[in-house]
Specification:
The protein is 48% helix and 2% strand. With 227 residues, it is mainly alpha-helical. It has 2 domains: 50 residues, no CATH class; 126 residues, Cytochrome c-like domain (Cytochrome Bc1 Complex, Chain D, domain 2), CATH 1.10.760. The termini are far apart.
């Protein structure tokens, strides 16, 4: 068999178009066999043994690293919804929160958070508010007359933040458990929007301080009795 170009035409003929029977060029064959070999290595590296991170995993890792760095800068500052949400993106913090939850909270809220003595923390109904900061304030200060203790002294603010970030990641899972208690997330959203100034919090001032509906009626606005 000779490697010289022979320009032999094959016998078939499609509407007058014929085909040469040429040998494929080496550079073409190299790219073909090269990519076959590469794909095997790629498959083993990224999928079978998962040594390398996929694009999604690399992205996720970068987000986690950035969140951890930002969290470190925020740690000394005031606790906000944003800082608590940031913590939910740092797996090490959420995991630490999960461990605290398993040690301190499951006897009343169950291991999965679906509630027992305490409310279901995975449903869409909240007695003291679903926002991260509201949950933080509830856990810090407790609801002493209802059997939920204040955890700020026993756990301290950092572990409370971690356990709250864990609770926030389970929020809305709607696991079957204790029947809903309190107001729906939608109602809380309306109520929270109405008291807009209370957007950042401090643990010493629970949100319930702002008494709703306490504005005095303006004089002279009563409609006249019809006559
Ligand atoms: C001894 C039982 C008990 C333990 C332990 C306990 N809780 Fe509670 N928790 C309750 C009860 C009871 C309530 C409901 C309070 C009420 O009726 O106002 C509650 C309420 C809550 C709420 C508010 C839920 C809502 O609907 O607004 C959160 C959040 C919460 N607990 C988190 C925690 C976390 C986190 C821990 C662990 C650090 C914990 N609890 C440990 C009994 C407990």
């Amino acid at each position: 068999m000779s490697y010289a170009r022979t320009d032999v035409t094959l016998d078939h003929d499609f509407d007058g178009i014929q085909e040469f029977d040429n040998r494929l060029p080496n550079w073409w064959l190299f790219t073909l066999y090269g990519s076959v070999v590469f794909s095997v290595g790629y498959w083993l590296f990224y999928h079978t043994f998962a040594v390398g991170h996929s694009q999604d995993q690399s992205y996720e890792r970068e987000v986690q690293v950035a969140a951890a760095a930002q969290l470190e800068r925020e740690m000394g500052k005031e606790v906000t919804n944003e800082s608590l949400l940031l913590m939910t993106q740092v797996p090490a913090q959420v995991e630490a929160g999960m461990k605290t939850f398993q040690q301190k909270c499951t006897q009343c809220h169950k291991l999965d958070g679906s509630g027992d003595i305490g409310p279901n923390l995975t449903d869409d109904f909240w007695l003291h508010g679903p926002e991260p900061l509201q949950i933080y304030n509830t856990v810090m200060n407790g609801v002493l007359d209802k059997g939920m203790q204040a955890w700020k002294d026993q756990l301290g603010p950092v572990r409370v933040r971690q356990v709250v970030s864990y609770v926030v990641t389970r929020k809305g899972m709607n696991l079957p458990g204790k029947a809903p208690q309190g107001k729906s997330v939608a109602d809380w959203a309306k109520e929270n929007a109405a008291k807009a100034p209370a957007k950042t919090g401090d643990a010493a001032a629970p949100a319930k301080d702002a008494a709703p509906g306490s504005a005095p009626a303006a004089p002279g606005t009563t409609p006249k009795a019809g006559g």
